[in-house]
Amino acid sequence: MIDMDRPMGRTPLDRPGGLVGQGLDRIDGKLKVTGRAPYAYEYRFDRPAYGFLVLSTIARGRIQDIDTASVEQAAGVILILTHRNMPKQAPNSPRTAPQLVDDRIAFRGQPIALVVADSFENARAASYLVKVRYVAEMGAHDLAAAQGSAIIPPPRNGSSPDTSKGDVDAALAAAPVKIEATYRTPAQTHAMMEPHATIAVWNGERLVLCNANQNVSRGAATVAATLQIPRENVRVISRYVGGGFGAKLAVQADAILAAVAARMIRRPIKLALTRPQVFPATTHRSDTIQRLRLAADRDGTLLAVAHESWSDNAPGENSYEGAAQATRNIYATPNLLTAHRLVHLDLPVSAAMRAPGEAVGLLALECAMDELAVALEIDPIELRIRNEPRVDPQRGTPFSTRMLVPCMRKGAELFGWSRRSTRTGQVRDGEWLVGMGMAAAIRGNPMLPAAAKVALGPDGMLVVSSSMTDIGTGSYTILAQIAADLLGLPIHRVAMRLGDSDLPPTPGSGGSFGANSAGSAVYDACMNLRGKLIAKAGFDAGTRFIAGRLESGGRSATIEEVVGSATISADGAADPGQSRKTFTQESFGAHFAEVGVNEVTGEIRLRRMLGVFAAGRILNGKTARSQAIGGMVFGVGAALMEAIVTDVRDGSFVNDNLAEYHVAVHADIPAIDAVFLPELDPHSSAMKSKGIGELGICGAGASVANAVYNATGIRIRDYPLTLDKILDSWSRETRPEQRSEVGSVGRT
Ligand code: MOS
Questions:
Q1: Would the CB of 344 count as within 6 Å of ligand 1?
Q2: Quick one: which of 403, 417, 436 has its CA closest to 597?
Q3: What is the distance between the alpha carbons of residues 248 and 240, in angstroms, rounded to a whole number?
Q4: Is the CB of 353 under 6 A from ligand 1?
Q5: Distance of CA 375 to CAs 337, 369, 739, 746, 747, Å?
Q6: Could you tell me if 586 and 403 are in contact, meaning their C-beta atoms sit under 8 angstroms apart?
Q7: What is the DSSP-derived secondary structure letter of residue 529?
Q8: Coil, strand or helix: which one is 638?
Q9: Cβ atoms within 10 A of the Cβ of 422, count?
Q10: DSSP state for residue 723 in the 8-state scheme
Q11: DSSP code per residue over 353-418
């Protein structure tokens, strides 16, 4: 068992020239690009039936009547499931996900029926014949309008929604320079390529779900608890996932309804959501309203930081967007207040989306810091350096490692920050106003309990098994690298078995904890296997595993010789121990963006971008860079285009498709690069690595928004920064050529 109660000492991974760290190609890459990696909907079973969801068309009220007579007559229809014939389920709780519970409608797009037919087309056609009579009620769908009804949400994972240190109000009143600004971020959808999908198959009492899922161990537990069947009778398989970003952390309606219906008709059921169904029937990121107050001395020393955030969720849902969380860790200040408020609205369920908290929190905080730098006439990097804390500003604990300043310095050098004009609206390229911006990146570095198993066969192949998933992040590859390195084997002698809840349990992929958690478990299993091999060979503890051999002193043996005729296996387990209590654990980075803003159209184009990060040992240079760049692209989208448009009159998501919900595409992203600084964090994990899946998005959008300000002098605090907001600002103010500084900064 690896527990992180104590820092890791020297390990075999510290040996130079190992596989860990190398930018190996993904070992599953060939399967994916040749279409042979099965995704949830693609497994083959005999005589599958097909399901299609029916969603509510009102946002609040109840179902008075569902007329299913014409559906039952429709071609190929086998079953229609509604709250009237839904078998008994466990009540709703954080551990369950009951569906079609009763006649209540809590949001528009809530699943209200499942139609099952002999083909997808017949199921979908029949779904349009369902006639529902509703008793509609007035709903609340507008965060700003309902802000006054906000509640203090319950603590989450032991973390309080509010923190307070010192006296923020007094410090603000007395400070010579202050910023007060309210930022808004819109609701967002994960927009992963693969929509939610399930195939449900029963073998007697045993249920197998092929399910697009980030966390199969928890998924199987949720399904078992909801259907009130033994946990060991549920197996969730999710070997390849077409992206998740948090949307697939928990099982959704497709898994539960496919399982229930498949049992009723004694046939496998395939059930996939359409994209317009994914928007409301699964989860999304809440919009936020964030009030920032910063106070500083004339030399830039922060005297007070206050960050209050409002987000919303569906009735009965108490999770909130932790937008002010990072503000507790990032800058030194004697007076610090963070607060989260939750408004219950009649809207679909909000939940985690890539870097929940930081992703939108830094869109506000890191722009407010830029506003402060402008007010102080201090370089934004220098302002941050002057407020670099020695310990966690809220908890007082030391940081395990903290490389924010080196990331900013390296980024400034590589990006050419010194060429930035400190005055806005000064740099032109034809009809484009050009500007540069930067922002800090910070993201929590969690680890959770995880397990793994390794088995070495007489053929010399090492099989690594764990319920860990690969959601496109590279889990298959990095875990194989860790195992190969520790056993001294080439990568092609490691076979990975992941994404199956029958394998040793892990928390799966999410929250940037995947590599730390599953990786440490694989590390532990491999170290235990080394011990068994050393004992079997009769070698000593100093034995090295290198090039397929055990070597010690003058003695040497091949792995196959030591294994002999019977497979040798070992279990591994990892636990975060005390490390997250003793140390504040965060990964860090700095983003630099250059944008052009078209003086005629107001269009904003990213011209180039750089992220410099420090996240402990980098396990695979290629997949890590890909994660970082993917996050940065996500951040560019958040800054410039991504927004779910909610019709606040009826609670509908208007642009519920990828034509009208804009994510950044290739044409939006020019030269962009990500660099990792060398770092080892012995407090973080067995590999001394930190999570990187979410670091890239954190602060990325703020650097773009700050660049827009630098280009134009316009400070837009309402994301995304679309051209209409630029044009509005220009039409309200003077034309750009006459303008010196537009946008309000509170300077006293
Ligand atoms: Mo992440 S939002 O925990 O997949």
A1: no
A2: 436
A3: 12
A4: yes
A5: 22, 10, 17, 7, 6
A6: no
A7: H
A8: helix
A9: 12
A10: H
A11: -SSTTHHHHHHHHHHHHHHHHHHHT--HHHHHHHT--SS-TTT-PPBS---HHHHHHHHHHHHTGG
How many angstroms is it from 417 CA to the middle of ligand 1?
32
Structure tokens at 353: 């989306």
Distance CA 333, CA 392 (A): 10
Q: How many other C-beta atoms can be found within 10 angstroms of the C-beta atom of residue 610?
A: 24
Asked if residues 506 and 467 have their Cβ atoms less than 8 Å apart, the reply is yes
Assess whether pLDDT exceeds 60 at residue 745. Answer: no
Catalytic annotation, residues: 694
Beta-carbon contacts of residue 685 (< 8 Å; ≥ 6 apart): 4, 8, 447, 515, 516, 517, 519, 520, 574, 616
Q: Token pair of 648, please? A: 């606040």
Residue with tokens 């300000």: 709
Mean pLDDT of 239-249: 98
322 lines ligand 1 (CB under 6 A): no
Query: At residue 199, what is the residue type?
Result: I
Could you tell me how far CA 7 lies from the centroid of its own chain?
Answer: 27
Domains (ranges, CATH) in the chain? 2-37+447-575 (3.30.365.10), 40-138+196-272 (3.30.365.10), 288-446+582-732 (3.30.365.10)
Residue nearest to atom 4 of ligand 1 (CA): 246
Is there an atom of ligand 1 within 6 Å of 444 CB? no
Ligand 1 centre distance from Cα of residue 355 (Å) = 6
Q: How many residues does the chain have?
A: 748
What pTM value is reported for the model?
Answer: 0.96
∠ CA 200-86-189, nearest 5°, is: 60
Strand 555-558 versus strand 568-575 pairing type: unpaired
pLDDT at site 748 = 32
Tokens standing for residue 740: 């010196």
Neighbouring residues of 160: CB distance < 8 A, sequence distance ≥ 6 = none
List the one residue out of 160, 691, 96 whose CA is nearest residue 448: 691
Among 589, 596, 595, 697, residue whose Cα is nearest residue 638: 697
Quick one: which H or E segment has residue 343?
strand 335-344
Calpha distance 37→341 (Å, rounded): 43
Note whether 416 and 561 are within 8 A (CB): no
Rounded CA gap, 430 and 597, in Å? 11
Q: How far is the CA of 320 from the centre of ligand 1 (A)?
A: 14
Q: Residue 672 — φ and ψ, nearest 5°?
A: -145, 140
- Ligand 1 atom closest to the Cα of residue 509 is 4
How many whole angstroms from 627 Cα to the centroid of ligand 1? 13
Which residues, at least 6 apart from 728, have a Cβ–Cβ distance to it below 8 Å?
none
Element (H, E) at 624: helix 621-640
- Please choose, from the candidates 252, 344, 353, the residue with its C-alpha nearest in 3D space to the C-alpha of residue 642: 353
Average pLDDT, the chain: 96
Locus of tokens 């959808």: 189
For the stretch 321-355, pLDDT in tens is 999 999 999 999 999 999 999 999 999 999 999 99
Q: What confidence tens digit (pLDDT) does each residue in 287-315 have?
A: 999 999 999 999 999 999 999 999 999 99
Q: Is any atom of ligand 1 closer than 6 Å to the C-beta of 356?
A: yes
Q: Which two tokens stand for residue 145?
A: 């309008």
